[in-house]
Amino acid sequence: MKKSVIFVLAVLLLAGMVPLMAGGKKESPASGGGGQGKYAKHLTISTTVLDAEKTGKSAKDKWLFEKFNIDYNFIAVTWGDWNEKTRAMIAGDDIPDVLWWDMKLNNTAEFKIWAEAGAFREMAQADINKRPNLKALQDRLVSDDQILTVNGKLYGWPVARALEPYMQSTQYMHYIYRRDWAKAVGLYKEGDVYTWDEAKALIDAVKRQDPGKNGAGNTIGITNEGWAFPGLYMQLLALSPDKGNGYLNRNTYIETANGYVPYFTTPNYREELKFVADLYRRNYIWRDQMSLRGNEGLDMFRSGRAFMYCHNGGPNFLNSQIYPQMTTNGALNDPQDVGPMLILSPKDNATYMLIEVEDYWSVAHFRHDLDNDKYERILDLWDWLATDDGRAWKEAGIPDVDYRRTGPTDIQRLWPKTEDGRWISPYSDFSYRYADPPTLSLFYQSQADQAGFISYAPAIDIVQNKKYNFKIQAFDWDRAKFATPLYNQFGGFQTQNEEFERQVLASSENVDTMMDRWLREMEPRWRPVAEELNKAYFKK
Questions:
Q1: How remote is the C-alpha of 211 from its chain's centroid?
Q2: What is the Cβ-side half-sphere exposure of residue 479, based on CA atoms within 13 angstroms?
Q3: pTM of the model
């Protein structure tokens, strides 16, 4: 990249113009690997990666690196510094061969500025077409065309979400709960569907009767991971009929008869905030949640301290993040004692809604001057990782050492088992995030632990058969591509919005009074942004 381009990017960052907010075919392309034939030249590839300290150190890694005659230089990032490190690397023309980052929709404008300035190498369509597994993945994605193509050229590879087909491009965003505690207090409902009045009565009874034997006052009602508070609670109320942008639905602009306005100015937002403030102020939601940003809420649920957990997981979340830990620590006897709780919308006690999301969760780019040998090798590696053999490697490990293939899409693990029949993975202490960009592999469900899917059967039945007043809030790709100077700088005022929500929850003041005062303060700030958006995009 020329120094002039670097200077332009640095100036844009400092000026605020770039916002500072936040199975395929079984064929293996690795014939002649291990230093022979096609891959005779050894290559070292640099990439950003989460969990760098756990990455690249296992026998499973060594097997893959030998297959493609590569090694990696892993550049550590964390959830907390990922985007800021990305911006610094680009401003200094110091990005690795593969820049993988947590690109969200509110990063779209800055990504396009970077792409047009020459920060990334194009991923030519002809090169993808030569790799059938990557091409098959691309054909089912939307974000490559809608977001990552700039001036007709593809500059990023979306890391696809691993969603079961019945999820219809949505994710479960809901609660899991202690069925055994609900049964113990006599308020369990077969099928796991409750109204909010029933859910609150359950929490009250569990705290009072203490079926978890935590002691008086020590049982938590609802908890969550830090990122979900309090916005996910508000979203789960299903009060907004408008299209949304996944998790950003509460920090975006919605279309009205008179143009686009911030969602936080609408009556639906006010009702959501009032409802969740009441939950928090009356201690249904864990009071310590206010000061936490990490996984402490999940730890409280897994330790047996909390009755409900608000999250965006599904069956495999129970299989990997709940059942093993809770059975090991003695908090759970039977996996089916924890399952999904679906709470109907308080607007009618009848609606259950899932929210369509963008089809990716992160993005990988190639640096602008990446040489052809590395470019081709990385694409070959990714193409293989998207095959059934690649998926088996990601899930189980080394063929004929960790698993034996029993069918075109079936495997039998060769790992040891615990006394109760659970697999003991030799790779549980390692991380393989560098293998995420091709796709997130769906599990081999004929071989996977089925307990989570059994637990989710009632919820899956509702989604598949459209029971209750089941709805999907549609994703709006056009709105996701909004880009005007003021919008690029301020967006939906997400930081200010989230801080205000926390102030409301922590206060005892009337919510309507606080809301009216805040809207008067915010209008001079959001009005110019909305007027700019309306001029550019609104059509009566």
A1: 33
A2: 28
A3: 0.78
